[in-house]
């Protein structure tokens, strides 16, 4: 299904997230311009989390998910799962440290992140596009744009 423009920005975020997921896996090929050593991968994960994933999670949890919450029991259950997964990434990625188990930890995060993104793209986003009318989708788009604008402004202040 073609992604509606209102949530296309989130799908573009997912492309970045999938790149991170692939990089973190044990069998990851070398990607031009990205680290191949464990510490570099860990630092890249933390940087990507800080610069991209936090805002992405906020946009989903504060804007996208509430737009369909309570309309369809399947999407409500899925949203609850996705929020738990956001919590997992929010706890795990910033707390990564160099250790003997780092390769395994990065691998698990990489696989979970890929699964999470695929679930949002293949299931939830299709449900959202079916449930919301054009006006509601436009409202989601405007709220996400405003959220991103505010995030960018707050980053420039720091």
Automatic annotation (TrEMBL):
Report the InterPro entries cross-referenced here.
Hemerythrin-like
Name the UniProt record assigns to this protein: Hemerythrin domain-containing protein
- Which PANTHER family does this chain map to? BLL2471 PROTEIN-RELATED (PTHR39966), HEMERYTHRIN-LIKE DOMAIN-CONTAINING PROTEIN (PTHR39966:SF1)
Choose one Gene Ontology CC annotation of this protein and give it: plasma membrane
This protein's source sits in the domain of life called Bacteria
- Where in this chain does the record put each Hemerythrin-like domain? 7-126
Q: Which organism is it from?
A: Ignavibacterium album
């Amino acid at each position: 299904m073609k992604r509606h423009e209102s949530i296309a920005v989130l799908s573009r975020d997912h492309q970045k997230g999938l790149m991170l997921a692939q990089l973190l896996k044990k069998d990851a090929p070398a990607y031009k311009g990205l680290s191949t050593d464990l510490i570099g991968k860990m630092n890249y994960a933390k940087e990507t989390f800080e610069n991209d994933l936090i805002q992405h999670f906020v946009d989903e949890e504060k804007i996208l998910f509430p737009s369909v919450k309570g309309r369809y029991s399947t999407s409500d259950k899925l949203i609850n799962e996705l929020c738990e997964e956001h919590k997992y990434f929010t706890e795990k990625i910033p707390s990564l440290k160099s250790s003997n188990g780092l390769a395994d930890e990065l691998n698990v995060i990489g696989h979970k992140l890929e699964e999470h993104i695929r679930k949002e793209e293949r299931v939830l986003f299709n449900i959202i596009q079916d449930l919301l009318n054009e006006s509601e989708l436009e409202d989601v788009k405007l709220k996400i744009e405003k959220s991103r604008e505010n995030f960018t402004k707050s980053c420039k202040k720091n």
